[in-house]
Amino acid sequence: MASPAPISFEFFPPKTDEQRATLEAALPKLKALAPEYVSCTFGAGGSTLSYTPETIRHLREEHGLDAAPHLSCMGGTRAEIRELLDRYTRMGCRRIVALRGDLPSGMASYGDFRYASDLVAFIRGECGDRFHIEVACYPEVHPQSDDAHADLRHFRTKVEAGANGAITQYFYNPDAYFRFVDAARRAGIGVPIVPGIMPIANFSQLKRFSDLCGAEIPRWLGKRLHAYGDDVESIREFAADVVADLCDRLVAGGAPGLHFYTLNRARATLAVIERMRR
Ligand code: FAD
């Protein structure tokens, strides 16, 4: 089953044997869809300083995937980031997802970088054009920003610092994406903006994530999901239809690809891709 658009998959670095087994089980099914690349998240403040590089090595060497590390700078030092960049270079990585990250509770200091744009500029300064750099962007506005115009200007700063592309926070309203892309183009941002897609497997988990990251669950969608209660199978079916329809509309409207937040599982992502129009 091929995807109707270029796709990428995002994983988080497994930390326990159980989590490693979950990812291992998902990988063959997701690999079969021939992703353009996969990526692996990075905990702010160095909490996954070793887990992310180890997962990237595993995905590249043992699964033959073009695996791109996320690199978040919050709480990090220039020396730490430089060391990671060297390590990723030695592994053959040529794509990085550069982020600010969030300050973990209990951590008081920003470290050597304040914003993702500072990290992008640092990577370009250290490594020139060695890496293709993706950054994050927010069609529904970053949760710490109460000014959509300023948020867009800050996105442009990251691109001017050297980002080659952007991946969005997830959303369920395609108009949020299309209007955001239009605004970005008017603001002179020319890089590809790939929608981030969150398949839905578990409503309470989705609500928790969405509260944290500022993604809106439309009222009609929340009400319908809530009404299924513990009927997990019905939630899966309904949610896969909804998210596949979102993906169809995004691709039809010109989205250059789709980046799936897999949460290290294949089922919900596969259900969406299977239902997409060919
Ligand atoms: P920035 O671009 O620095 O923006 C953060 C905030 O600061 C925004 O409100 C922005 O408007 C504002 N801002 C930016 N520049 C300025 C300025 N010069 N002056 C004033 N305000 C400014 N988090 C992780 O910890 N690890 C991950 O692996 C990870 N992967 C992600 C992948 C994707 C695709 C996405 C969408 C998010 C990911 N995140 C990850 C979450 C991300 O780190 C958070 O959303 C974080 O709060 C912001 O990161 P950023 O890179 O967008 O920050």
Q: What is CATH's topology name?
A: TIM Barrel
Which ligands does the model contain, each kind named once?
A: flavin-adenine dinucleotide
Roughly how many Å apart are the termini? Answer: 10 Å
Order of helices and strands: EHEHEHEHEHEHEHHHEH
The largest sheet has its strands arranged as 1-2-3-4-5-6-7-8
The percent range for helix content is 40-55%
User: Rg to the nearest angstrom?
Assistant: 18 Å
- Indicate the proportion of strand residues: 5-15%
> So what's the overall shape?
globular
CATH architectural type: Alpha-Beta Barrel
Number of H/I helices? 10
Contiguous low-pLDDT stretches (5 residues minimum) are none
Overall number of strands: 8
Overall number of structural domains: 1
Mean pLDDT: 95
Largest sheet: 8 strands, parallel, barrel
The CATH class designation is Alpha Beta
What's the structural blueprint in terms of helices and strands?
Blueprint: E1 7-11, H1 17-31, E2 37-40, H2 51-62, E3 67-72, H3 78-91, E4 95-99, H4 116-127, E5 132-137, H5 148-160, E6 165-170, H6 174-186, E7 193-197, H7 203-213, H8 219-227, H9 232-252, E8 258-261, H10 267-275
Parallel strand pairs: 1-2, 1-8, 2-3, 3-4, 4-5, 5-6, 6-7, 7-8
Helix pairs in contact: 2-3, 4-5, 9-10
The structure holds flavin-adenine dinucleotide.
Residues 41-44, 70, 72, 97, 99-102, 115-117, 136, 142, 144-145, 150-151, 154, 157-158, 167, 169, 196 line the site of flavin-adenine dinucleotide.
EC number: 1.5.1.54
Keywords: Amino-acid biosynthesis, FAD, Flavoprotein, Methionine biosynthesis, NAD, Oxidoreductase
Family: Belongs to the methylenetetrahydrofolate reductase family.
